[in-house]
UniProtKB/TrEMBL annotation, chains A, B:
Superkingdom as given in the UniProt entry: Bacteria
InterPro entries attached to this UniProt entry: Mal/L-sulf/L-lact_DH-like_ah, Mal/L-sulf/L-lact_DH-like_NADP, Mal/L-sulfo/L-lacto_DH-like_sf, Malate/L-lactate_DH-like
UniProt keyword Oxidoreductase, yes or no: yes
Listed GO MF terms: oxidoreductase activity
Keyword Membrane: no
Family: Belongs to the LDH2/MDH2 oxidoreductase family.
UniProtKB keywords: Oxidoreductase
Protein name: Oxidoreductase, YjmC
């Protein structure tokens, strides 16, 4: 793969141009671009520029409203709804998080349902935003069905990521963001693009047989991580992201989608709570004892540590040259 | 193994006698017995009579208060604390669930922190109690460290079960209750007792090597399910059950324990929320579409279905004769 080294500022400008030239208003383009830059900054390439062509496809097809004006409302003092006006999720989330954080900080726990949005980004920046306000956060989404329940070979679940963040004293928060599939869909797609094999257990081919070929899995079905336990957690994610929000289950999202390659419409479930209000004074020092114990164990690694290390790297990022060319091409509108 | 067939009523009487003869007052003995009978009724033998000797050991050593008088209070309209008065968890939970359910039904979401208790039972009856009130429920506990973080061979996590329930229309709720270790500690102990081997990946022996011998794993360390992802979820459980409650992390519980074989003191985190308030009208029919789709897939099985099938079986349960003899022996107080 030929790569080009781009600064985060160049990555920002390239993404912003692609979104702006394809129907995003400045607010939506800005929010979307922030998710792309954060992903490339932290080394999460499958959620960075790699997603821009998909975003643009849905803007061009008209499926996603590039000028969405998300509305935030309260259903109760501790239930926030962010209605995304059929746009991409980031702007609705940026507008909703302050209301969610305020409710959780005041009452101790609160929930936000995100509806009428199209989600195509990583979840960890969203829960990190809560941890930055000294709140614990949980979030999950559920989109296209491409993961089979344990014991079967028919897709029902999305890759159904679950993210969790816990604030730490004078340190980056503890954060994980995991697909509940054995491998994230984006990573399987990248492996297929780059001609790499994937571990057995990642998925099944179109005949329901195990395979290490990511291209065959993309035609077949992914498997949940961790057997029946991961499958149960994937089910929980469907129920939270769709059942608890009133938005579409993965299978409904697919049925209603236009197949343009971008993300279908769906929901997201957010939880925020205040360790300070729940556990009381001293909670930070108490938790640091646990993290100290964890980090002292040889061979162990806290989830999220790699991202935080990447974040401190201010050098240019190596980006696939073909991808850059594709995005530059997309910056010229087809009708201009 | 020689077995004796006991009715649920006989199981009830045997457990109640053991608790009553070893320092439990009627309220605590009744609550404990209900967890034992529910476990045997639903085929969850590792949480049934099998636990009685451990319960009795901690009553006899004086570690656990058999006459505990749990107190329920609110820290905010949506934070309930159940202080177990250093007794076993079931009575505190029975007293706290109504306050948690009331808050979740009124505000949409609520949390309960359980503190100053000793937990030795399954979690599914606790979240099922919420689902019976048309609430979704989540619960987790964290006790003795016997599970190594992914990549290491030193115990840090408890088996850290996570349970979740979702209410269904005219059907038993969707419920899972999973150890975040590859296998529950109780199941490894039963495999060791019965001389069965366990799958590779269950745990490591005392030298840190993989083994299928459950007795060697009991001397070594268990592994999380699902590699680094299960390890992340086990970490989340520590943070919820101890960090968010102010109670002991697994390693602290061990440090403070007297080693009598019963459960150490720890906390529990409960979450309850109302799908009706969050998602609005029609949520039940919406979710039944998902469950219908799930159950129609060949090879798939909803978690919890086995327990609900066992529950409808009204015949006697086959119980290890040696276990019955042990419990009968425990019904005679050592000082009587």
């Amino acid at each position: 793969m030929t790569v080009v080294n781009l600064s985060l500022s160049e990555i920002h400008d390239l993404a912003l141009e692609a979104f702006t030239q394809n129907g995003c208003d400045p607010q939506n383009a800005g929010a979307l671009t922030r998710t792309v830059v954060a992903a490339e900054r932290d080394g999460s390439h499958s959620h960075g520029l790699f997603r821009v062509p998909g975003y643009v496809a849905s803007l061009r097809s008209g499926k996603v409203n590039g000028a969405a004006d998300p509305q935030i409302s309260n259903k109760s003092p501790v239930i926030v709804n962010a209605n995304g006006d059929d746009g991409y999720a980031p702007l609705a989330i940026e507008r909703g998080i302050p209301a969610l954080a305020k409710a959780a900080s005041e009452f101790g726990i609160a929930v936000m349902t995100l509806t009428h949005t199209h989600h195509f980004a990583a979840l960890w920046p969203e829960v990190e935003a809560l941890a930055e306000q000294n709140l614990a956060g949980m979030a999950c989404v559920s989109y296209m069905p491409n993961v089979a329940p344990h014991g079967s070979n028919k897709p029902l679940f999305g890759t159904n990521p679950l993210a969790f963040a816990w604030p730490r004293k004078n340190k980056p928060p503890f954060v994980f963001d995991m697909a509940t599939s054995a491998m994230a869909g984006g990573d399987v797609a990248i492996a297929a693009r780059d001609g790499h094999s994937v571990p057995l257990g990642t998925g099944l081919d179109e005949n329901g047989n195990e395979t290490t070929d990511p291209a065959a899995i993309l035609k077949g079905v992914l498997l949940p991580f961790g057997g029946h336990k991961g499958s149960a957690i994937a089910t929980m994610v469907e129920l939270l992201a769709a059942g608890a929000t009133g938005e579409r289950f993965s299978f409904e999202a697919q049925d209603a989608d236009n197949g343009d390659g971008g993300p279908p419409r769906g929901g997201e479930f957010f939880l925020a709570f205040s360790p300070s209000l729940l556990a009381g004074e001293g909670w930070e020092d108490h938790c640091e004892k646990f993290f100290d114990k964890y980090e002292a164990i040889p061979g162990s690694r806290l989830p999220g540590a790699r991202r935080h290390n990447n974040r401190s790297d201010t050098t240019n990022r190596a980006i696939d040259a073909k991808l850059i060319a594709t995005i530059q091409e997309l910056c010229s509108r087809p009708d201009s």
